[in-house]
Amino acid sequence: MNRMTIPVDRELETKHRTLWGLGDYGAVAADVVGPLGPELVAAAGIGPGTKVLDVAAGTGSAAIAAAATGAEVIASDLVPGLLAQGRAIAAVRGVELSWQEANAEALPYADADFDVVLSCIGVMFAPHHQQAADELTRVCRPGGTIAVISWTPEGFIGQMFATMKPYAPAPPPGVPPPLLWGSVEHVTGLLGDRVTELRTERRSLPVHEFADGASFRDYFKANYGPTIAAYAGIADPAQVADLDAALADLGDRALAGASGMEWEYLVLSAVRC
Predict the structure, then answer these.
(1) Could you read off the pLDDT of 32-83 as tens digits, one per residue?
(2) 87, 105, 123, 245: least buried by Cβ within 10 Å?
(3) Is the dihedral of CA 75, 111, 42, 103 positive or negative?
(4) Which Pfam families does the record match to this protein (predicted)?
(5) CATH number at residue 28
(6) CA 243, CA 166: separation in Å to the nearest integer?
(7) Residues 6 or more apart from 18 whose CB is under 8 A from it?
(8) Per-residue DSSP letter, 124
(9) What are the phi and psi torsion angles at 28 (to 5°)?
């Protein structure tokens, strides 16, 4: 599809920009999930001279790692505040790349413009999965690489979203759960016959940031947009207490394992046909 004809739901776009501007996702990236960025860069085989687009880049854990290899990188995201944080981080590290505001469902780039198109726990949260997947493939050149990391439905973050679901507002019609991006069957269907050499692997991120379930819950209540939004929609104090208890229990159960918290994710890479 030509990028000039892609429809965009501006009301939903605004809601998502607001959602991910809540709290401090930059802290979550720095404290907890940052190691996923360099891992995705390695999986995509990025190196000097590679032209890279990071979609839904957030504060740029993948984009900055890609630029550090000598690649030519654009970090794109819907939330200006996250881009500003990423730009500051890159400056401190002495890494040069471009930061641009963009909707993952209507990317402002030409067809086949990039050698590598990647997204690290980002594009999975775009509301319309097929439209976002279409954009990933559209802007990747034939023979180029598409690489994505997504949380799995069965893993810890999938369980967290399932725990919050009864308390959160229902998604708009036609908007599927973001954790489906962590399902091999679902994401393979999204990309279809436009890719080849598709590889997937489930891995786990070890998380040692939290002493107990309550500290995990309180950290996410303060910093993570979807958790903040779930609590903001609750009017009944008894329901707040119920969600407090449920999230703390989830964290305690995850910490009860021999190695502590392990957050499962799916790594996908494929070659654009």
Answers:
(1) 999 999 999 999 999 999 999 999 999 999 999 999 999 999 999 999 999 9
(2) 245
(3) positive
(4) Methyltransf_11
(5) 3.40.50.150
(6) 9
(7) none
(8) G
(9) -60, -45
Task: Please tell me whether the overall predicted TM-score, pTM, comes out greater than 0.90 for this model.
Answer: yes
Tokens of 266: 């799916």
What are the DSSP E strand ranges found in the chain? 51-54, 72-77, 98-101, 114-120, 140-151, 195-207, 261-272
Q: 184: how many CB neighbours lie within 10 A of its CB? A: 14
Domain that holds residue 129: 3-208+264-272
The rounded distance, in Å, linking the Cα atoms of 33 and 152 is 14
Q: Which residues, at least 6 apart from 179, have a Cβ–Cβ distance to it below 8 Å?
A: 124, 150, 151, 152, 153, 157, 158, 161
The domain tally of the chain equals 1
DSSP codes of every residue in 148-203:
EEEE-SSSHHHHHHHHHGGGSPPPPTT---GGGGG-HHHHHHHHGGGEEEEEEEEE
Q: Answer whether 234's CB lies under 8 Å from 167's CB.
A: yes
How far apart are the two ends of the chain, measured CA to CA in Å? 16
Q: What is the pLDDT of residues 73-121, one digit of tens each?
A: 999 999 999 999 999 999 999 999 999 999 999 999 999 999 999 999 9
Is 20 in contact with 225 (CB distance < 8 Å)?
yes
Asked if residue 12 belongs to a domain, the reply is: yes
